Sequence to fold (345 residues):
Amino acid sequence: MGWFALVAISLGVLALAGVVYQTIGAARDRRTFAAPGKLGRVGRHRLHYRCEGSGAPAVILEAGIAASSVSWSLVQPEIAGFTRVCSYDRAGLAWSEYTAIPRKMAVLVSELRSLLQQAAIPPPYILVGHSFGGVIIRAFARAHAQEVAGLVFVDTLHPEEWCEPSSQQKRLLRGGVFLSRIGAVLARLGVVRLSLSLLSGGAPGVPRRFSRIFGPTAAALLEHIVGEVQKLPPEVHPSVQAHWSSPRAFRGMRQHLSALPACCAEVAGGKDAFGDTPVAVLSSGKRDPRWLDADAALARTSSRGSHLISSRSGHWVHLDDPELVVSAIRDVVGMVRSTHTSWSA
Fold:
């Protein structure tokens, strides 16, 4: 038997072992990390949502493009101390079911609204959106103004950033979609699961070295996942690890990334005039000056708008500076309650 045949057989055995390892691990994850909230049916698929606290108005948390309800782990419990707060997972992410329905902005808004109705969460809401989530709550507020009591934008994406992507942005998107495809393959083979397990077991350098077997692209993907996981509270690391060990997470990410320009094009060009609806816009201290100006302009669309800059945070303000995010939401809740005296904690 030649060396090529031996290598091929060895790789085949490793791949089979990886698939078995992934299958066993996925079954264990389903038993160990059941959805912490509830599943609400939206058309043919179900979305996971989790509510805490009591009082009105309800605060609805909308995560970034490939993020989930877990990304709000540092702020949701704090908000629950002064009003009802709900986070959820868009289709294909975390505990929500995947759907083949294209991710158009109108669909995203419709699914959120249907979920809130299904969950019997009465409007008007205070909508909080991070990054791409900021574009979604902007579209929701335009389509259903009477159902929105306030808005909080957390280092929001502006639709004009991506509605007509430049050559560089197109390359970035293609790279992101490609990374998603690679990630799905690595997850099926158990590579993502093993790498994250080694990390959580106290061997931070091993996943990086191991991933180089599959090339620098895979290494960059796993390093990115590891970096974001480390920002979250230690108690949620196991569930995040389980999510990113699933090929479904990468399919959901690919679907959202592929839809980004079209979604932004649906919102770009529209006019925002929020009147006296309270609006808080939070920016990273590392924000590009052009979009920092756009953040300030967005705050001025309301007579009760404010623009706050976190000098200590990157893009994930709610992970780097959660106190600022909670404080801004508390202020908006207070302003809304001041004009609706029947609402209280």
